[in-house]
């Protein structure tokens, strides 16, 4: 009998946790890069802030351009392990090694250091794409159920935030502890050996503990490069969501990069860096478990707007509070963390439904390609977010390891708070145009089930 209803997929908590280990692994490295690589390049590796800022922009753009190519490779993959899981298996070890190399300081002349930094950062970025894009797309292969997708993403985001907490607190702590018995350069390298090795192991656990369930008719697997442009043309929710990712990850990158400068120089309390970083993630852990309930109670636009406005309130606090009011600064940081956590937990849950919409419009299920398109935009956001703080620091006269001028301190404050507020304002305007509401998505999913099962029946009879 032809199936006309969306099949119920009850995914166990264990599998959701093991899936979430993948984002925990990715964030152990991603958060280290976002939060500390600019600081490492300027204050440990020895690059000028302007050189480092330009490199961030070039590497991220190069990385973003490679995303669609990798997306096509993913969608053409078909192995005994599935379409997406093999990339976790074969990418884990290179991912670990390249993360360590990025935080290593070889004895080279300045020109050699610049070349080394470019080479290792580009290689890590491409490897990250080979792991993270199929990892993200794996959600759309685990279930078609929208609420299960939200639940899976909630586990994923919770563990991703755990990764950010670990990085926020442990990376500066370990680097500081190791520096008592070795050079600062060696201490950063050893710290990343520990962080990256844990990440590699977690990726292997994710590979082992997850399952791809969604079956796709053979006709939906005929992929070509031009499908990228077709998706951007007919899949309006994808285009809106891509722009949203561009803005949000631009903000995330700005906030991650500037935090260590804000506390070290503007507040003048470098010993609080790990606590400031941790409070930027910890409060979100308490709100993330409520995201499935919030997604059932509020519309998507309401949930995203409330999340962004909460983050803006925290950013305003960081701007107006005097640098000596430590408690108020940490409260503001915590409020921003709640808003940021809500955004992160929900925005990723929208991608599987965008994949479904694209399949409904084009009769092709392009999970890898769509995640790669999203990846292109959020990495462009990372590129801008990584570049903006370096440019602001350079323009305001920042010089490492010295007492900062009033102008450079003001530049740090602007980069930490005003820039994110301006970008968030654009994001609120952008999300208004996301038209894929709950009712529309439910109708599309039901139609896809009927259409695909008809195609399965035809394939049996051939």
Automatic annotation (TrEMBL):
NCBIfam families per UniProt: gph
Keyword Metal-binding: no
UniProt keywords, alphabetically: Cell membrane, Membrane, Symport, Transmembrane, Transmembrane helix, Transport
Transmembrane intervals: 21-41, 47-66, 87-109, 115-138, 158-182, 188-207, 238-263, 275-294, 306-328, 334-355, 376-400, 412-434
Species in which this protein is naturally found: Clostridium frigoriphilum
CDD domains: MFS_MelB_like
Name of the featured protein: MFS transporter
Subcellular location: Cell membrane
Membrane topology label: Multi-pass membrane protein
Cross-referenced PANTHER family: MAJOR FACILITATOR SUPERFAMILY (MFS) PROFILE DOMAIN-CONTAINING PROTEIN (PTHR11328:SF24), MAJOR FACILITATOR SUPERFAMILY DOMAIN-CONTAINING PROTEIN (PTHR11328)
């Amino acid at each position: 009998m032809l199936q006309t209803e969306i099949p119920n997929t009850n995914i166990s908590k264990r599998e959701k946790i093991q899936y979430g280990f993948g984002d925990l692994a990715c964030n152990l490295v991603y958060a280290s890069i976002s939060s500390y690589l600019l600081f490492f390049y300027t204050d440990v590796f020895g690059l000028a802030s302007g050189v480092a800022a330009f490199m961030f922009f070039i590497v991220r753009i190069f990385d973003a351009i490679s995303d669609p190519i990798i997306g096509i490779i993913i969608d053409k993959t078909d192995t005994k392990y599935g379409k997406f899981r093999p990339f976790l298996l074969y990418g884990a070890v290179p991912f670990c090694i390249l993360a360590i190399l990025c935080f290593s300081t070889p004895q080279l002349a300045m020109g050699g250091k610049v070349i080394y930094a470019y080479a290792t950062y580009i290689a890590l970025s491409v490897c990250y794409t080979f792991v993270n894009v199929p990892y993200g797309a794996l959600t759309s292969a685990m279930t078609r159920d929208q609420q299960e997708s939200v639940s899976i993403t909630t586990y994923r985001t919770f563990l991703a935030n755990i990764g950010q907490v670990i990085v926020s607190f442990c990376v500066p702590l370990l680097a500081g502890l190791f520096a008592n018995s070795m050079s600062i350069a060696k201490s950063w390298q050893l710290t990343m050996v520990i962080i990256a090795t844990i990440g590699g192991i977690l990726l292997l656990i994710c590979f082992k503990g997850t399952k791809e369930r969604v079956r796709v008719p053979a006709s939906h697997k005929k992929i070509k490069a031009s499908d990228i442009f077709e998706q951007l043309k007919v899949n309006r929710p994808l285009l809106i969501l891509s722009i949203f990712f561009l803005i949000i990850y631009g903000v995330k990158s700005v906030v991650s990069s500037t935090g260590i400068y804000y506390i070290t120089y503007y507040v003048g309390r470098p010993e609080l860096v790990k606590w400031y970083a941790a409070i930027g993630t910890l409060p979100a852990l308490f709100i993330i478990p409520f995201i499935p309930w919030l997604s059932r109670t509020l519309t998507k636009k309401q949930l995203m707007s409330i999340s962004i406005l909460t983050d803006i309130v925290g950013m305003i606090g960081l701007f107006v509070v005097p640098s000596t009011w430590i408690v108020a600064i940490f409260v503001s940081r915590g409020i921003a963390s709640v808003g940021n956590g809500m955004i992160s937990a929900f925005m990723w849950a929208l991608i599987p439904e965008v994949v479904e919409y694209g399949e409904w419009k084009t009769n092709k299920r392009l999970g890898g390609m769509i995640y790669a398109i999203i990846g292109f935009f959020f990495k462009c956001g990372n590129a801008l977010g990584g570049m903006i703080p370096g440019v602001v620091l350079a323009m305001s006269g920042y010089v490492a390891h010295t007492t900062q001028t009033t102008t450079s301190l003001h530049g740090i404050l602007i980069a930490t708070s005003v820039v994110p507020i301006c970008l968030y304002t654009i994001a609120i305007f952008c999300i208004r145009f996301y038209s894929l509401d709950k009712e529309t998505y439910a109708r599309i999913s039901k139609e896809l089930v009927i259409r695909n099962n008809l195609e399965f029946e035809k394939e049996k009879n051939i």
